[in-house]
Amino acid sequence: MALSSSRRYQTPAMSLPPFNHDARTKFTETPNTSWTFGQKIESTESGRKWLEGEEQGWKVINTDEDTSRLYPLMISAIVPRPIAFVSSVSESGVENLATFSWFNMVTHNPPLVSFSCSNTPRVKDTPTNVRNGLGFTINIISEPFAENANATSIDAPPEFDEWTISGLTKVPSIHVKAPRVKESAFSMECEFFQAIDVTHPVSGEITTTLILARVKYIHVRKDVLNERGVVDITKYKPIARLGDISYARIGDAFRLPRPVWEQEKGKIEQALENNEQS
Ligand SMILES: Cc1cc2nc3c(=O)[nH]c(=O)nc-3n(C[C@H](O)[C@H](O)[C@H](O)COP(=O)(O)O)c2cc1C
Description:
Blueprint: H1 5-8, H2 45-52, H3 70-77, E1 84-89, E2 95-100, E3 103-108, E4 111-118, H4 125-130, E5 136-139, H5 146-151, H6 163-166, E6 170-171, E7 180-181, E8 186-199, E9 206-220, H7 233-236, E10 239-241, E11 247-249, H8 261-277
Bound molecules: flavin mononucleotide.
Cofactor: FMN
Protein name: Flavin reductase like domain-containing protein
Keywords: Flavoprotein, FMN
């Protein structure tokens, strides 16, 4: 019997270990603490193991010819993605809540974020609502309300308010009509900045709408901030989107300073010289 698409993606819950609520992001050393400029990955055991995978060869996909698997392939490979939990309101006053993982920061100056909405098989309520000028909020989802947020992705008709099934709490915004999510430790009150309707170069169909949002106010819970006033990843517990119906939590983290030319140029010159000689 053919399974419906939602059944097909289901992971048998019985075979999974329970969610570990005590797991916390911790900082570890970097993958190769003795790396120097130009050093190849074959120089470590884990690097050699990684390269062994290449023995199976490469699959090359021409995206004009082989379109059927692009969606599952791309969403499974371009990971992890942050998730915008968007609260908006229609012109007639219907409130709406939905999740969008084609989401990221564009710039801090001015503070802009973007998210992208697929228009097939239907134009979604969120891109329609955010264009109405009433403003909207983008909230970040933390582990304790993953199920609540996921429920709002239901393909309900426009007159349905997803807040009613979410179990989440509305807090009035100070600048925009749409409320923010109280359970979210980081929320942005946004104004519509720009929409780019993406026209397919072959079919001419407007398949997708990219929304640019101007962040006017940020609400951040003080308990997730560190002494430098930035978000402490060990307390924030954000979830990310992976392929198909998978989500991820943030596991171990490591810190690597961005190299500064003035400090590193001696080492770089030396490394290049060594490479030439070998
Ligand atoms: C975690 C997650 C991420 C999603 N990301 C996107 C996305 O980036 N773009 C999109 O068009 N739909 C995305 N969806 C599907 C929408 O949430 C879904 O179509 C929703 O019903 C849209 O609601 P609306 O019509 O009220 O705007 C995602 C769903 C989930 C569960």
